[in-house]
């Protein structure tokens, strides 16, 4: 597991706790926190398709 997969959701969480509430900044933090889930999901889909092509 790469370090940025863990850092990407933790950093926005810490930033959202440190800053006062503002809808746009918290929406940006949520998008940044979702990046690892999207990357891992795409990798799993790619692996599944590659395994299906071989089988």
Task: Summarize the SSE layout with pairings.
Blueprint: H1 3-18, H2 23-54
Helix pairs in contact: 1-2
**Could you tell me the strand content as a percent range?**
under 5%
**Rounded to an integer, what's the Rg over CA atoms?**
15 Å
Number of helices: 2
Morphology: elongated
| Uncertain residue segments | none
Decide which structural class fits the backbone. Answer: mainly alpha
Walk me through what this model shows.
The chain has 55 residues and is an all-alpha fold. The chain has one domain. Helices cover 87% and strands 0% of the residues. The protein has 2 helices and no strands. The protein is elongated. The model has no long low-confidence stretch (mean pLDDT 89).
Question: What's the quick description here?
Answer:
The chain has 55 residues and is mainly alpha-helical.
Key traits:
mainly alpha; 55 residues
